[in-house]
Amino acid sequence: MYIYVDFADTNIVITEPYFNFSSIQESMNEILFEEYQFQSALRINAGSLSSHRYFHENNSELCCIVVDSGFSSTHIVPYCRGRKMKEGICRITVGGKLLTNHLKEIISYRQLHVMDETYVINQVKEDVCYVSQDFCKDMEIAQLKGEDNTVMREYVLPDFSSIKKGFCKPREEMNFTGKYKTGDQILRLTNERFAVPEMLFHPSDIGIQEMGIPEALVNSINNMPEEMQPHFYKNIVLTGGNTLFPGYRDRVYKEVRALAPVEYEVSVVLPQNPICYPWEGGKLLAENPDFEEMVVTREDYEENGHYVCEEKFDV
Predict the structure, then answer these.
(1) Domain 7-44+279-312 listed as CATH 3.30.230.80
(2) How far apart, in whole angstroms, are the C-alpha atoms of residue 198 and residue 195?
(3) Is the four-CA dihedral 59, 282, 100, 271 of positive or negative sign?
(4) Neighbours of 165 (CB within 10 A)
(5) Which residues face 153 on adjacent strands?
(6) pTM (2 decimals)?
(7) Ramachandran region, residue 140 (left: φ > 0; alpha: ψ -120 to 50; beta: rest)
(8) Are 43 and 16 in contact (CB under 8 A)?
(9) What average pLDDT does the segment 79-94 reach?
(10) pLDDT per residue over 103-142, tens digit each?
């Protein structure tokens, strides 16, 4: 089914990165208003939409801090009364793409050349990886032999003929001898399962000299005025695809709790759908009675150019 959209009668809400280059912003304005000729547009950060969604549900709260961990990177952004606190924004150059690429390198070195199979290995990562609550203990288990190794999983790769999508074997069907039939394409995964997501918490493990997510969260909150800090600690919101790793929320809470002052309450919220959470915020924003005050109309743009966008869009 095709749905025809008349851009001239359509408003658009479009997300962009934090501290985006002005040249890219100007190009985006030109595409939206000159090429597609939308009736009006709002350029905004994904974190701002997430905070709008959170404050809508928790209208008694004054502050929140959004952890947006996606494909390319992770951003930590504090908000107060819906306003972005730029002095507290922190960026970590670890995202889902880096994790998938690292898993490809590990598997290619240990088992099977998969450097050209980004889509398949990304699926492997999503199906079997998890965030460890005790890294050293899990490493000890991963070194055990046979059925004592409760970390080990066998992943059946797709052949795109009889097997369209890869899957993780049930534990009772696993082959602990390590001998497989000719033609079977099976990955045996042990410490990769938790060592790959660990990069979100310790980027220095692979030579990236940056803070992990919990440390960056605390650093960001410490950059805020002291009287606001308790409000941020009890309103930590996790968004983005990386938050779907089992154990992610618990690990963030555990490490932030250890780093935060003992007198502060710490609460970490993982929404039901952390990937679509900003979209939900955008939907609420579009239904807001003040929405027309936030956007730039095509007439405004044609009259004032890029200047009016710079003035209205706080990105």
Answers:
(1) no
(2) 5
(3) positive
(4) 11
(5) 189
(6) 0.91
(7) alpha
(8) yes
(9) 91
(10) 999 999 988 898 998 999 999 999 999 999 999 999 999 9
Check the CA dihedral 96-101-106-108 and report its sign.
positive
CATH 3.90.640.10 given to domain 96-198: yes
Q: Where in the chain are all domains bearing CATH 3.90.640.10? A: 96-198
297, β-bridge pairs: 40
Q: What is the dihedral of CA 140, 144, 150, 151, to 10 degrees?
A: 60
Superfamily of domain 46-93+210-274: ATPase, nucleotide binding domain (3.30.420.40)
Give the rounded percent of residues in the chain with a pLDDT score beyond 90: 70
Mean of the pLDDT values across residues 294-308? Answer: 90
Domain with CATH 3.30.420.40 in the chain: 7-44+279-312, 46-93+210-274
Q: How far is CA 205 from CA 190, 217, 228, 263, in A?
A: 18, 19, 33, 32
pLDDT (tens digit per residue) in 132-166: 999 999 999 999 888 888 899 999 998 888 888 88
Across the beta sheet with 186-189, the strand order is 167-168, 153-156, 186-189
